[in-house]
Write a structure and sequence with these properties.
The protein contains 7 helices and 9 strands, in the order βαβααββααβββαβαβ. The chain is α/β, with parallel strands linked by helices. The strands form 2 sheets. It has a 6-stranded parallel sheet, covered by helices on one side. Helix 1 crosses helix 2 (about 45-55).
Length: about 250
């Protein structure tokens, strides 16, 4: 997998580098195009980044009024659930910033996976350029699971499931309990100008190695499906997550 791989000594250093990169990217993009489309990820790894965004200098240096927020995936839970990626980002930083409500596009997970995916796709299509059938995100943030999943694209997910869609409903098992979710598809993610994976922790080191250095096994290591067509792919890793890269 061809990627710009960057390793940091700690999660904080990685989060700080990501915050600086995003602040610069927003500034350059707003000068050129007037708005910035970003898809956020869930999980514990991006929380430090989100916390930085709620503090100076980022609260003042970034023009939050022209950023449009989406989520790369979501669980089909209440917006007040601590398992909601939307809830996590809103409470950590978005609610504290001057982001117009019309610029916040959550997944309507309470409708169930299939209905929520259809509604999300309709919203996404509104941001496609005239004459185009797919929006181009300025940035998609992603994480990586210990099993190699990214967003809610899990090992064993058939490739054909995602070929012609922008968002789909998926299911995985949490212990013995099924978890219904909605995810952006590789088709949509790979159209982005930049995709950044943020990965931390030794437990994810083998998934990082297999994804970046292993055979091209798209079924067992679905994060390998993320390869932007003409955009930039950046992997930001703390030293624990990068330990098997050599």
């Amino acid at each position: 997998m061809k990627a710009d791989t960057r390793v940091y000594e700690s999660l904080f250093r990685m989060s700080k580098a990501a915050a600086e990169w995003i602040a610069h990217s927003v500034e350059c993009t707003l000068d050129a195009r007037g708005q910035y489309l970003i898809a956020l990820s869930g999980g514990s790894t991006p929380l430090e980044l989100y916390q930085l965004f709620s503090e100076e200098p980022y609260t003042s240096d970034i023009d939050w009024t022209r950023i449009v927020f989406f989520w790369s995936d979501e669980r089909c839970v209440s917006t007040e659930s601590p398992d909601s990626n939307y809830h996590q980002a809103m409470k950590t930083f978005i609610e504290q910033l001057p982001v117009p409500l019309g610029h916040i596009h959550r997944v309507l997970g309470e409708r169930g996976g299939q209905a929520a995916a259809l509604a999300y796709e309709e919203t996404l299509l509104r941001y496609a350029d005239s004459g185009q059938f797919i929006p181009v995100f300025d940035l998609v943030l992603l994480g990586l699971g210990e099993d190699g999943h990214t967003a809610s694209i899990f090992p064993g997910s058939p490739l054909a499931t995602f070929e012609n869609k922008l968002a789909v409903g998926t299911q995985t098992m949490i212990g013995e309990t099924p978890s219904e979710r909605v995810t952006m598809t590789p088709r949509l993610i790979n159209a982005a100008r930049t995709v950044i994976f943020m990965v931390s922790g030794e437990k994810k080191a083998e998934a990082v190695r297999a994804t970046l250095k292993g055979p091209n096994d798209l079924l067992h290591w679905p994060a390998r499906r993320i390869s932007p067509q003409s955009g930039e792919l950046i992997w930001m890793l703390d030293s624990a997550a990068a330990r098997y890269l050599g």
